[in-house]
Design brief:
The structure is a homodimer of 194-residue chains.
Chain A (H helix, E strand, L loop, with lengths): L15 H14 L24 H23 L7 H29 L7 H35 L8 H30 L2
Helix pairs in contact in A: 2-3, 2-5, 3-4, 3-5, 4-5
């Protein structure tokens, strides 16, 4: 196990300009991903997938599409309201779809006006919203998966239920969650690393 | 509330070795979480709840206790293996319990030898492990909750099932996840903010 402090060797004090250049070189070494050299006080470029980037917009559209697909497939069965977990999946998919579409519009706006979305308050709101919708979507998908497996594998009563629709809707909700996770992690990362 | 740095009076510049010794002494004097004067390049003290702190150890023990309680309550019913989601809850609770106990031992060791656990690789492993076990525990808890609600509210067949045990085990798993979330968020935060 390594000690918590790096080894410090006494060195001569550098003049301010040289010290700043050294700091920049250090910052370059420790940069994330590609390691961008940026002077103090100027923001880093957004990593791909962050809000306001084309990859981020793609993630949002993927989330919204699969949440809408889960909603549509589940709502197409006529007996989903009889099971609480399936109703909850419909509610979570609606919330997920609305949230992702809202942020997709924000991303489109940021791309059109070529603005960065690395505003402290905006990133904080995005992170909290992603965390809440992600937890709800994952919970709904897991609850539906539990019931689908109960109906299909444990009780073997698929003949009298819409197992295929339930399974498809559950899978769509999981895919929507998998597309949400990178957005949430990237937002949290950029919130923490400022 | 105290300011993050103590009041500084201008003094004569110390030679580098003496200054370093003084800084170390200052860092030692101030307890964690109470605003530590730390020189440039030396890491901050751990926030409460981070690994290697008493609060972090408390979180780990809480997680392990509630995961063990969920496991014990669920395993005390004789018909849990007939439902896949309940078997999955047992598996996830075992994993959660082992992970939290392991990290609790690491925390105890770090507290005994008074070392910080802010090692980059250790924090990365803790974060990934917390993320995986947290997702599994939340998924298992949600799947169990879906089935418990199906049995209790939708089908009303609690008379022939151990509804109380299923509900208790599900609640314990949720509490374990709620105790895991701060650990995971704090680890991720300290990984991102270095």
């Amino acid at each position: 196990m390594r000690a918590s402090r790096p080894a410090v060797h006494p060195v001569e004090a550098l003049p301010p300009a040289a010290a700043q250049a050294q700091e920049q070189a250090q910052a370059q070494d420790h940069g994330e991903g590609e390691g961008v050299a940026h002077p103090r006080g100027v923001r880093m470029k957004d990593p791909p997938g962050a809000p306001g980037t084309p990859a981020g917009l793609g993630l949002r559209l993927t989330q919204a599409f699969f949440a809408a697909a889960a909603l549509a497939v589940m709502a197409s069965t006529n007996d989903f309201p009889s099971v609480s977990a399936f109703s909850y999946l419909v509610a979570a998919a609606i919330l997920q779809c609305l949230w992702s579409i809202s942020l997709a519009f924000v991303d489109i706006y940021a791309l059109l006006v070529k603005r960065s979305l690395r505003n402290a308050r905006a990133v904080c709101i995005f992170t909290i919203g992603d965390g809440i919708t992600g937890t709800l979507t994952l919970g709904a998908a897991c609850a539906s998966a539990g019931i689908t497996v109960l109906i299909g594998n444990d009780l073997n009563i698929c003949a009298e239920n819409h197992c295929a629709s339930f399974e498809t809707a559950t899978a769509m909700a999981f895919i929507s969650w998998f597309a949400l996770a990178p957005s949430c992690i990237l937002n949290f990362w950029s919130m923490a690393s400022r």
